[in-house]
Amino acid sequence: MVYKGYCYCKEIKYEIDISSPDEARTSLCHCKNCKRFFGTANLVFTHTAFGLTTKIPVNAFSYTQDSAKPTVHEADNGSGSLLHREFCSKCGTGILEYGAAAANDFRYVMTGTLEDPASLPPKGEFFCLYRLVPSSPKRGYSH
To answer: Is residue 109 a contact partner of residue 120, using CB atoms and an 8 Å limit?
Structure first.
């Protein structure tokens, strides 16, 4: 199954090639870094302060031949580990991220950049302790 995605201005285009949707895991992340990167760090009253990424095997992701090259940003994620992010330098859309520990195995694609984000719905949440608005776990999600 091939899932296509792109940034807002469509300069960056990619494909995810997996044999089954079970190879992908979309999750909500409530960590400080994701809330900041996704622009939801201060949305206390909306109940939507989280990042949404889809974890895929590293070899399942590729930029298309007609895609521009992404800009890369790497920095300490606050715990001493290097966080790598790729984004479009023209429109600023984040495309993917991964930490140093996952570099050889996984990519975390920004779910909203998928052509059809609903095709890979959320299956879990992380860093729930840092939810801005406490709530009960989502039904059907793992923690």
So the answer is: no
Closest to 96 measured CA to CA, from 64, 120, 63, 65 = 63
Q: How many residues does the chain have?
A: 143
Q: What DSSP string runs through 83-125?
A: EEEEE-TTT--EEEEEEGGGTTTEEEEEGGGBSSGGGS-EEEE
pLDDT digits (tens, 9 = 90+) for 99-141: 998 999 999 999 999 999 999 999 988 777 777 665 555 555 5
Distances (CA, A) of 119 to 8, 23, 72, 84, 141: 19, 13, 27, 25, 16
Q: What is the value of pTM for the model shown?
A: 0.83
